[in-house]
From TrEMBL:
Keywords: Dioxygenase, Iron, Metal-binding, Oxidoreductase. GO terms for molecular function: gibberellin 2-beta-dioxygenase activity; metal ion binding. One of its GO terms (biological process) is gibberellin metabolic process. The lineage of its organism: Eukaryota, Viridiplantae, Streptophyta, Embryophyta, Tracheophyta. This is gibberellin 2beta-dioxygenase.
Amino acid sequence: MPAMADCAAEPPLADSYHALLRLGVDGDVVVGQREEACAKVTTTPCDEGLTTAQPVAECELPMIDVGCLTGAGGKQVNAEEERAACAAAIAAAAAEWGFFQVVNHGVGQELLEAMRREQARLFRLPFEAKAKAGLLNDSYRWGTPTATSLRQLSWSEAFHVPLAGISGKGCNYGELTTLRDVTREVADAMSTLAGTLARVLAESLLGHPAGERFPEGCDDATCFLRLNRYPPCPFFPDDAFGLVPHTDSDFLTVLCQDHVGGLQLMKGSCWVAVKPIPGALIVNIGDLFQAWSNNRYRSVEHRVMTNATTERYSVAYFLCPSYDSPIGTCSDPSPYRAFTFGEYRRRVQEDVKKTGKKTGLRNFLV
């Protein structure tokens, strides 16, 4: 595994940590009370979305062979029966877990390994180059600019790139000449997989094919690829967020994580850790699919925990519509009023700015 980035490459996450520590947890801890601040964070119940010092059980998500959908599983003897069984398994996992894993997904293992190597090269660039050189359409992000307490700080950095920008003429890759082709190929393969799974999930509720354009308004201009890195965290790593608890504000997310682990999701009323499985991709339902499905599919809260000594990489594809796309419903009546993706995003951003956390779909209940 590649070595960790040197100090010049690291974003100033420690500065953010110390600044928020000085502010105190929820505004009532003064400088020097670090142990008390940590205790306040780590003893809060998990259902409030804060860190917890309690042991977290490890789980294996439902594993589904989707080769009959992607053509990556070889010739099927009973193709229609296998497709129906596969679709039923996907819909069941989306309803019970909101998460599932897929194999024979059509995204080549060699390609994913090449993406991992390119990510390592990208994130080892000096911080100044990542932050100010306009790389990948100036899409570099780190930490949580809006954080007002430690519980809102994400110990991570990322490039969040619209698919159209990956191969756009104005997209700057610097000296990373091989990054463009690998990133484009990963984006194309994940996009194909996400579209296939979304249509299968829709068909399971509609009772008939959803059409090649489902979800409406999703294309290269609206969907994103996010290249993530979670640096080692020296500050209480077992209780620090690499990515704060959240749900995804899209239709569907496809995730490739490495072997380090750290992804956790809410199951019942407690957090469970997702065991990394070599060769498998993770798929999760987003808020828009939960709304479209009238809550039959679940957009589940999840988070990433940090590691004290080892960096973690992942690649996530987000299936998003255009801002003016109405989300619609699989059947009437819907528990939600009509809204567009743009309305949803604006309301999420307003809530985070005002309260520090996302309210999400509850804002759009009838």
